[in-house]
Every structure is written in C-alpha cells, then in structure tokens.
Amino acid sequence: MNQAKAGSGSILRSRLALVRTVTAVACLAALLLSACTGGAPGPGPTSSASQSRAAQPPGTQGSGPELLWKLDLNLTIPWSIVFLDDGTAIISERDTKLIKSVRNDRATTVGEFPGVVPGGEGGLLGLALSPAFASDRLLYAYFTGESDNRISRTRLEQAADGRLSLGTPEVIFAGIPKASTHNGGRIRFGPDGFLYVGTGDAQHPEQAQDRNALGGKILRLTPEGKPAPGNPFGNNPVYSYGHRNVQGLAWDSSGRLWASEFGPDVNDELNLIEAGGNYGWPQVTGAPGRAGYIDAKVVWPSTADASPSGLEIVNGTAFTCALRGQRLWTVPLSGETAGNPVAYLTAQYGRLRDVSHAPDGTLWVLSNNQNPDFALVLKAAS
User: 13: which DSSP letter?
Assistant: First the structure.
C-alpha cells in the first residue's frame, strides 16, 4: 500500500489541477456555482450556535464544496465507501451484496459478500478498513443476515496484477436486531483504534433506553469484536444509547465523535457523542433541554430537509449527506459547538447516501437513486 500512487489517485490529482486552471474562465465558474448552490431548508435547522438559521447570504456559495465531476459508475444502491492508500475506492452495494472497487474512473466487482440477506433497509451496509490495513489487509463489513445484523471481517487480497478479491469472512460480532427499517449500519475505527458501530432500534423504540440491548446504540468494540476496554458500562459493548437510527460517524481534529441520526417524522439530528450519554429516544427528540438527556447539536425539524446519512469531517466542517433532503449539508464546528448548517447540491442529484474523504483531498459522495447510481467528486472548501 506504500507504492507510488497511480490509477485513480493520479487521475484525480491531474483533474483537480486542470479544474483549478480552468475555473479562471468565467463561464465555467458560473457553471460550478450553479452546481453548488446552497439551498435554504423549509422550517430551518437549529444549531447549538443559533436558534434559527437565516437565509444564506449572497456570495457564501463559493466558500463551500465545489463539484469537480460526476463519475457514472453504474452502481446499484451503494451504501458505504472507503479508500485504500493508493486512491482505490471500495464500495458496498446494499441489495446486490457486492463489494466493488473504483480505479481509473471504472467500477469493478471485487466479490459478493457471503451471508447477506437484503430486505427493506437491510443488506450489505457499512465498511471500515483495519487501522493496520497495510499489514493485515482486513476489511470490516456490517450486514443484515438471516436473523440479525452482524459484523464480519475478511482479507482484501491483491494479486500481482492489482486485481482485488475477498478472502473467507469471519463473523466477529452478531445479535444486533434487524427489521425492514432502522438497521443502523455505519461502522468506523476511531482514533483510539477501536471499532465504533451505529445501530438502529429495529422498530422497537423501547430497546434504545435498555443498556443491555444492542438496538438504538453506538457500540465500541475491539478489532476482534469484544467490548472495548474503558467502555462506560463495564464489560458491555454499549458506548452511548437513546438513539433511533445512527447513520454517520466521524471524528473532529480534537478526537471528538459526532454522529448523524434519523429522527421520526421530525427532528433529524447531528449529535456530539459522550461516553455513556443518553440521547433521549424514544422519550425525546431534537434538543428539548430535558434533564437526563443530551441535546442534539443540530436539529432539522423537517425530515424533508435532511434524513441525514453518511458523515465526514474535514478542516473543521462536518459534511452530511441527506437522503430525503437530496442535498449535502455542511456544518461548521468550533470545539463542542455546531454552527449554522448550509446546504449544497440541493435537489440536483437526488438522494445522497455517503460522503468520504479521499487520499488526494477530494470528497466523494454516493447517490442512492437506483437509476443507476453514481459518485460525485467534490473539492472541499479550503
């Protein structure tokens, strides 16, 4: 993985340099501006920095992400994207059960992940790379099986000609409740080297308040699938609870964990996660200020504006994809405070599922429209 970067990584860098040059031309600048217009939401999200968001001021669009190009990869409901050091993208497809790789702007099937039983919102969901991937080459996957949601890991083998293949998977954690909706599914290794897992309440809201249940939680596991040492409730995988359906996990530069979460018919959330914290579901949603529950840092009162999915944090800005909202939200972060959300790409590319920071500094965003699906490559604001 320490080879000179080639393939998709070199192409992305070449294209990025070309875009920077050409954007001096007024016509292309106008085109980019129209592709990245910030949209004002319906009722308006609230944040820890303000109680209501004013209309986006003229000229602020240029300070946000810029669309560089759209990759027509012929994907089918892609769910998660991670990157190898050489810039190769690894993508899961929820219903086909396939792992695909993207190099040189082309998607290739790596293999079908065993044991996946798609249905409703379940299937092959989140991916994560081992912190020691350069030596162990382990790819982790969260997926819906016959009777539960579970996590497996497998070696991502690479042949001499560069072709990738899947080894034999090993289930490291099982028993996460499944349903037609609210399956959670996002997994990510934290700065501490442990695996964080976002689960859903699987249509049983009461279990979100039960610290002995796995639904409606953020879990913290060792790479082998055991409760991580230092967890807040002893030898228990639960790290935080009172969640409805966690869809995104990301850390800021100071190591604070943030999570995006579906609300019911109101109050989608961006939360700052505390070890042992109770985030209120189903007793409360949003930020009501009730004792015993932790308020969300950002609340979208109308789920038509959000239904937030994948989450990434780059240079102090949180980027979260919106499914029903069909846009990319940006939220400036300052310590434990979240600023005013601003929307980009509104209603231009349909449902957006995941966002990930590539090794060359670009952001990749996956669509979820089944028409077929594609990836957007963005330049994050400097």
Answer: H
- Residue 238 pLDDT: 99
Q: Check residue 27 and give its pLDDT.
A: 34
Q: Which residues pair with 156 in a beta bridge?
A: 166
Other Cβ atoms closer than 10 A to 243? 29
Residue 332 backbone phi and psi in degrees, to 5:
-70, 135
Q: Which amino acid is at 187?
A: I
Tokens of 178: 């499944």
Sequence-separated (6 or more) residues with CB below 8 Å from residue 199:
149, 176, 177, 183, 184, 185, 214, 215, 216, 217, 218, 219, 243, 246
- Tokens found for residue 236: 């228990």
Both tokens of 231, joined, read 């967890």
Instruction: Please tell me whether the peptide bond between 308 and the residue prior to it is cis, using omega within 30 degrees of 0.
Output: no
Parallel/antiparallel/unpaired status of strands 89-93 and 98-103? antiparallel
Summarised one tens digit per residue, pLDDT across range 106-133 is 999 999 999 999 999 999 999 999 999 9
Strand partners, 333: 338
- Contact, 205 vs 244, CB < 8 A? yes
92-113 per-position pLDDT tens digit? 999 999 999 999 999 999 999 9
Q: Pull the structure tokens for residue 175.
A: 């028993």
Compute the distance between CA of residue 306 and CA of residue 320 in angstroms, rounded to an integer: 9
Low-confidence ranges of the chain (pLDDT < 50): 1-14, 16-42, 50-62
What is the structure's pLDDT at 1? 41
